[in-house]
Amino acid sequence: MSRNDSRKEELQHQLQTLNVLEAELKSLKPDAKVYNAIPTSLKAPLISHAHGQKALFPNLDANSALKDVQKRKVLLANLQQFE
Predict the structure, then answer these.
(1) In angstroms, rounded to a whole number, what is the distance separating the alpha carbons of residues 16 and 35?
(2) 37-61 per-position pLDDT tens digit
């Protein structure tokens, strides 16, 4: 597999992950709180949780988290156009 194919596959995997996150966030109650699991600086205060992932607080509301995921999907789609 070429480096370019590998990059395209990674972008597609990230998009699938964002699609799942988006669907899960849409299913939550409007007042639900969620962890911000977005990659952060190594200096940020991180807390380990399920599956060895790291989470950064402060418990975003579900709507704010959903908006963030949707922004990331747009950015990822733009990246895919350049691949």
Answers:
(1) 19
(2) 555 454 545 444 555 554 444 557 7
Residues 83/11, Cβ–Cβ less than 8 Å = yes
Q: Are 15 and 77 in contact (CB under 8 A)?
A: yes
Tell me the C-alpha distance between 26 and 29, whole Å: 8
33-36 and 47-48 strand pairing: unpaired
Q: For the chain, give every domain's residue range.
A: 3-81
Model-level pTM greater than 0.85?
no
Q: Dihedral, CA atoms, 27, 36, 73, 24, nearest 10 degrees?
A: -20
